Amino acid sequence: MNELEELRLEAYESSKIYKDQTKKWHDAKIVKKDTGVGNLVLLFNSKVKVFPGKLRSRWSGPFKVMDISPYDTFELWSEEGGTFKVNEQRVKRYYDGDDKGLIEVFYLRKPLPEEESRIDGNTYTEPKDIQQAFLNYYMQLLGKIKPISKVHGPTVRTGKLIEEHHCRALLKPGLLGPGRGDITAAVIDFFHSSQLLKQLNTTTITLIPKFRSPTSVTEFRPITCCNILYKCITKILCNRLGEVLPELIYDLLLFSKGTDTSIMWMLRGFATFSATTGLQLNRDKSDIYFNGVSTEVMGNIMQISGFRKGTLPFKYLGVPISSKKLTKNEGNKLTDRLVARTRAWGSRHLSYAALLGKYTLWLAAKKDHLWVRWINHVYMKDGDWQNYKAPNDSSWSWKKIVQIKDTLKKAYSGDLWLNGTTNYTTTEGCKWLRTHKTKVPWRHLCWKSLNVPRCSFIFWACVQGKLLTRDRLLRMGFGQGDDCYLCGGCAESHNHLFYQCPYSNQCMRILKHMLHCSFPVQRMMQWYSSGRGRSKLQSKWIAACFVGLTYAIWRERNLAWQQQVRVPKLIVIQSMQEVKARWKKMNSSTLKQKDRAWIDLIS
Fold it and tell me: What average pLDDT does the segment 136-163 reach?
């Protein structure tokens, strides 16, 4: 696959996620605003918020802080109005004139020789000293080249190791793209030669203070400015590592007894790990939590380990971790994040055609837009948009826009969308597309409530012909053969794997026998749609079992190349047991005598 093309398609989403996570991490380090009694503050005037413009300021003042209550209520004083009270959210610090912490240089405290993370009262004023302070900090953070100890083989083999498929992911061949342009050629050359020019292997780091008057390196936010070649190469390498590292590296939570001896043995283990791998423990990002430990022992442990004392609860994956049982609201935070990610994915991908419809409207109305003028100059040449046909040598995206135009043309009356009853939006376009698509006969069989969701998805992909069978992979340039994994006799296609393969046919015969029904597999859709002689519950059970068996056959096919294929009766029984377990979980009403007798018969 063309890795540069993947970068182009995923760049926006990956960049947005990275920036959001980086901003969240840095914002957590920002110190709370230093507003105290006697300082001057500005007051946010919410009444001016409704009047946009640069001539009206939303902040009034300054006012002097007279008192601050324990509940962050500020008592302000002004010469005109006397004293009054406001909430903390409506005030911000007012700086009158130059502040001593922001002159032409940043003052950094000098670290002690024995421990550079400790700070004393000295300051740096020379640019060379400031530069050296930052270099020392990052050299300590990233580690130094040191001789490592010999690794104890039996101990290492007890954990996860890099396997053959990990090596294939890390040592992929060079890029398979056409190699057009200097950037693509330079990236391909790096992966062939493993060398990069020194002029390209450079990075500019801009340091932005997190608040006024920073006093240490950690109080600056580093912004890295890399060139485009460096970014492309780094992204490709990160994508390869991303396939391997999640299986080998994970967050570490260590538990021990609250004694000096236990902590000493744990630190000894850390020292052994560092000596054999060269990796150092970052104490600034490590916390230690206590429960049921005396104050004296707690002080000794903190002095021995050098860790910070953490307080419960702490958050992991957005969920607070504590010794108590999670409440419903705390568990909902993780669920809300999953739902938000799912909705964001759906808005980007599921309404793809409706999004392109916006561009067809621009072209029809000849909107004054740079992209419209460029399209008119390159493709349309002042032609008629309604009857325009995309040439064969045009780009894939332009062909898609023209195809969507031909689909949405039925909803237009001239330049008006739906006879002018409403303006075109992505939502309206998506609704119209959904109501004007042909309904397929297998929709009721696929999306029944009793179906296991993963089984419904595989069945949907099977009916659509979207599963990566061996014949499709061979046409895409992957693999060396197309023989069926289950029978080894014919080419593996959708039609053969699920309808003609002897293994699949035997599974279907066993399923029909256990369900006490008779129908040709190829005419399953018509037989199910007729609904003759069956109750609603029986129809749901038959649909769920048939869809579940389709998933089971696909799963056995995927596992066939690395282990022996199980007997058909075993996977049929397992599929029916999954349906029965889901039915018991969802069932909340009384059964009719006929349905109960039928379930007892097939069980």
Answer: 75
> How long a stretch of residues is the chain?
603
Give residue 426's domain range: 351-435
Lowest mean pLDDT across 97-101, 265-269, 297-301, 554-558: 97-101
Structure tokens at 531: 């609904």
How confident is the model over 96-123, as pLDDT tens digits?
644 443 333 344 444 434 333 333 345 6
CATH (domain of 87): 2.30.30
Q: In angstroms, what CA-CA distances link 363 with 103, 200, 398, 437?
A: 54, 42, 12, 24
145 vs 474, more confident: 474
Contact (CB, 8 A) for 281 and 274: yes
If you write DSSP's letter for every residue of 194-248 in order, what string do you get? ----TTTS--EEEEEESSSS--SGGGEEEEEE--HHHHHHHHHHHHHHHTTHHHH
Residue 211 has a pLDDT of 73
Residues 321 and 294 sit within 8 Å (Cβ to Cβ): no
Selection from 133, 93, 92 nearest residue 220 by Cα = 133
* 415 and 526 housed in the same domain: no
What is the distance of C-alpha 39 from the center of its chain? 44
Assess whether 397 and 458 both reside in one domain.
Answer: no
Taking the C-alpha atoms of 27, 28, 29 and 30 in order, what is their torsion angle to the nearest 10 degrees?
Answer: 50
Residue 483, phi then psi, degrees to nearest 5: -70, 145
Same domain? For 459 and 534 the reply is yes
Cα distance between residue 461 and residue 456, in whole Å: 9
pTM of the model: 0.42
